[in-house]
């Protein structure tokens, strides 16, 4: 599968999002640094991304204009990309005073190509930076903002520039605009997951060579796809699963079964006692996290031994630091005093991150194509420190066992009533304040359990889910009757912010 669209990266945090949108629309796109352009051939189109610089700055990143012209394909400049093209064609810019992002109206003047079937005055999201002060010769304005400033230009046949970001969802019809650009190409859509998978596997084989790869698996989507991908690539791989004792009911068995189903052998390291001992007496949430994070990496690397190559399931959102993924990468993020070990490996070229260009849904699609069962790909996120963050106060085996039972009933109830796949994450928390109750005519001084179910897109914000009362009632009854040590069930109706998803 040949790359069809080169997205030249001028440093916008949305550059990879353009790649993803183009792939969603069926064309194979890849991100390149601008100086790579000269080496590329067989492209059907080129998109120049946005970026934080001003083209009026002499040291701003450039484009090899002659190489771009020689390709003879439709070109789209986005934001900085548009300004760069404007300059190359001989136009002028007026430096802006701010570089904030904000909404604007797309007042269309030419609806033939990019804006065919796009609603006039629909919202687009743009950066208020440099503005075009003089058009290049032969260029025309395709759209302005509500203040009459040009925000879309046609430089010549099939070469366009837009000042706004079509790749973000805040640009309400951005997808349609990108689709209209792709309609200008002389190539048919050529992206498919199967071919993409082969490409990723080819790259892995090339990078790994004869080395042995060690990776951590948690049962979550990213590390599962990573391990199966490495296995498929036929390289020597040693996946390690650390059972911290902070896992949910049957989780270790389920993870083992999940990997057995796809033919991948994993090593399980049982370390419950070490973790419980290390956590003994600790009640401070941050200290608890630190203890677990540090110990996790100690246990992991003790078992891994001398690592030739360390693979982790870092995704693109992890790279741009906007989401957590349940991978070792995100565990590490919060444990800076151990991160050096990984950084050293990285500096020596001994870290492999084959998913780093992908978004979660792309990883899921890859997982499906690798034959990973849907239940494994659709699991809710689970925090690296596990149930310890759902057990405020001191963590003990007794509390964890109670929590595991209650959580199992909650999750099973959600599955039974078809709610599991509708929600983003469900968690059960055992609160440390015992309360008075009566069980079978006897005073019961026991723990309360808080149930929480949220929807979210990226874990940065979340809303609680309106699970029907009869479903909550059934789950509550089962917990109260079935779990020794619990006499009260609460449902958490807090949004994030201010409440976080986890209680600690
Ligand atoms: P909060 O509680 O911050 O959680 O709203 C946001 C998301 O991140 C998960 N989470 C973690 N994931 N290591 C992880 O891999 C962690 O230390 C960690 N803490 C929270 C949480 O489950 C939710 O999905």
Write a brief caption for the model:
This protein is α/β, with parallel strands linked by helices.
- Give the helix tally: 16
Distance between the termini: 46 Å
Q: State the strand order across the main sheet.
A: 2-1-3-4-11-10-9-6-7
Percentage beta strand: 15-25%
Overview of this structure, please?
The structure is a single chain. This protein folds into 3 domains: 5-182, Rossmann fold, CATH 3.40.50; 193-377, 3-Layer(aba) Sandwich (Rossmann fold); 396-491, GMP Synthetase, Chain A, domain 3 (2-Layer Sandwich). It is 34% helix and 21% strand. The chain is built from 16 helices and 21 strands. The protein has helices spanning 15-24, 65-71, 80-88, 174-182, 193-208, 221-233, 251-261, 272-279, 285-304, 316-319, 328-333, 336-347, 360-369, 374-377, 397-416, 469-482; strands at residues 5-8, 29-32, 45-48, 75-78, 92-94, 101-108, 122-127, 131-134, 140-144, 150-156, 159-162, 212-216, 236-243, 267-270, 309-311, 351-352, 425-430, 435-439, 442-455, 463-464, 486-491. Strand 19 (442-455) and strand 20 (463-464) form a beta hairpin. Helix 8 packs antiparallel against helix 9 and helix 15 runs antiparallel to helix 16. It binds xanthosine-5'-monophosphate. Xanthosine-5'-monophosphate is lined by residues 289, 324, 326, 330-331, 334, 381, 383-385, 425, 459, 496, 500-502.
Which tags fit this structure?
Rossmann fold; binds xanthosine-5'-monophosphate; alpha/beta; 3 domains; GMP Synthetase, Chain A, domain 3; five-stranded parallel β-sheet; 34% helix; 504 residues; nine-stranded mixed β-sheet
